[in-house]
Write a structure and sequence with these properties.
Structural class: mainly beta
Number of domains: 1
CATH architecture: Beta Barrel
Radius of gyration: 23 Å
CATH topology: Porin
Order of helices and strands: HEEEEEEEEEHHEEEHEEEEEEEEHE
Oligomer: single chain
Number of strands: 21
Distance between the termini: 33 Å
Number of helices: 5
CATH superfamily: Porin
């Protein structure tokens, strides 16, 4: 077995662009590393200019050599907010409210062997990310069309395609081919209901929907979204060319208040191609494409019946550290994509998220990057309801940002 390829398969578990770490402890069998980065930026978008956090994080990696070629390892990672985020609220008196400084991003443990591969359990990057991570190198506007950051640009935890919760994953490599298979072992349920005439424009709470469901209303549903499954293949065709493919599947089991039931399959599948290495000098180019059903939501939270997504990225890193890049992304659900017709929706609503990002990174050294990035939006959210159309477009505005990323 090629140990380099096994190491590559193991490294895929840590699929975060530009990973770096510092060894802080080592003895004859244990190693501890600390990694992460601080990213602070000034962004102008939606007619506002603000200092914001750029997904800064800190992580700890642990490795222990066991007998017979086995290793045990673990990783803990938290997002951090170094720039602060305090708001003034008024409730009979002025009060300053500050969001949490830490939030959970990753946490898993596993075993690895040169021959038998690796097994991990916990919150970790999903197998689907192996397929599409190759275009996710923009710092400010990462890819929101590859089916990773689902349910209105969250972290993909629910269906296991991003930083999946409660995931069991196995990886190995044979020759030039590596693979990953996974299952999410979870039990979750929630209540939802269709918007009816006279309902508040702000929708209903889960408790109100549960009450309707208990009274036998067909407009209310109990939804179970439990296990998901996924897999990915990576073929290292040459030193420069890499091909990927994969799939992820889950199910929504819906019980209506009147006793009827239905099932909606959450499915995404696709492929990717990569040339070069984003961090090396010279040309880097990548693209991926996916088809999806009941996998993501539009910008106001409605489940998308079916769509296709494409992401592309091309860059060139000069020996002086300058790295210009351009990225084009599209997620197209067409019209008639809303599967809940009594959602007070135009039956011909259009959802097409489409944008171009251009940027220039100055890689001062591998762990210090200054950058400027700009986004131009070409989305189409046409609807007969113009207020709804405006809400859909709000989070897809043009923008420009400058910042610094300091990695450990």
């Amino acid at each position: 077995m090629n140990k380099t390829l096994v190491a590559t398969a193991l490294a895929a578990i840590f699929l975060v662009p530009s990973v770096s770490a510092i060894e802080i402890y080592k003895d004859n069998k244990n190693t501890v590393e600390i990694g992460g980065f601080i990213d602070a930026r000034v962004i102008n978008t939606q007619d506002e200019t603000e200092v914001v956090n750029g997904a800064s994080r800190i992580n700890f990696g642990f490795n222990r050599e066991l007998t017979d070629g086995w290793n045990a390892f673990a990783k803990l990672e938290w997002g951090v907010n170094p720039v602060g985020n305090s708001d003034i609220v008024y409730n009979n008196r002025f009060e300053s409210v500050q969001e949490e400084f830490f939030y959970n991003r990753l946490g898993y443990a596993g075993l690895s062997h040169d021959k038998y591969g690796t097994l991990t359990i916990g919150k970790q990057w999903g197998a689907w990310y192996d397929v599409v991570y190759n275009t996710n190198y923009g710092f400010v506007w990462d890819g929101n069309t590859a089916g990773v950051y689902t349910f209105n640009k969250d972290d993909g935890a629910v269906n296991g395609v991003g930083r999946g919760d409660k995931t069991v994953q196995y990886r190995n490599a044979f020759g030039d081919v590596s693979f990953a298979v996974q299952a999410q072992l979870k039990n979750s349920s929630f209540y939802t209901c269709d918007i009816l005439l006279g309902d508040s424009d702000n929708g209903l709470t889960q408790k109100e929907c549960e009450e309707r469901w208990m009274t036998g209303s067909k407009s209310a549903q109990q939804v179970e979204y439990n296990y998901t499954y996924g897999g990915a293949l990576t073929y290292k065709a040459t030193d420069m060319l890499t091909l990927t493919a994969g799939v992820n599947r889950g199910e929504f089991d819906v019980s209506f208040g009147n006793g009827t039931q239905s099932t909606a399959v959450d499915l995404i599948y696709g492929a990717g191609v990569t040339w070069g290495n984003f961090d090396n000098d010279g040309l880097y180019a990548a693209a991926n494409i996916n088809r999806q059903e009941n996998h993501d939501t539009d910008n106001i939270g409605r489940l998308i019946k079916d769509a296709y997504g494409v992401e592309t990225l091309a860059s060139f890193k000069f020996d002086n550290g300058l790295r210009p890049f351009i990225s084009y992304n599209i997620l197209d659900a067409g019209d008639d994509y809303v599967i809940q017709p009594n959602f007070n929706a135009d039956p011909k609503d259009v959802f097409k998220r489409q944008f171009v990002v251009v940027g220039l990174h100055f890689v001062w050294d591998p762990n210090t990057v200054l950058y400027i990035e700009a986004r131009k939006d070409y989305s189409d959210f046409t609807s007969a309801d113009k207020d709804q159309e405006a809400k859909m477009a709000l989070s897809e505005d043009d923008g420009v940002a400058i910042g610094i990323r300091y990695s450990l």
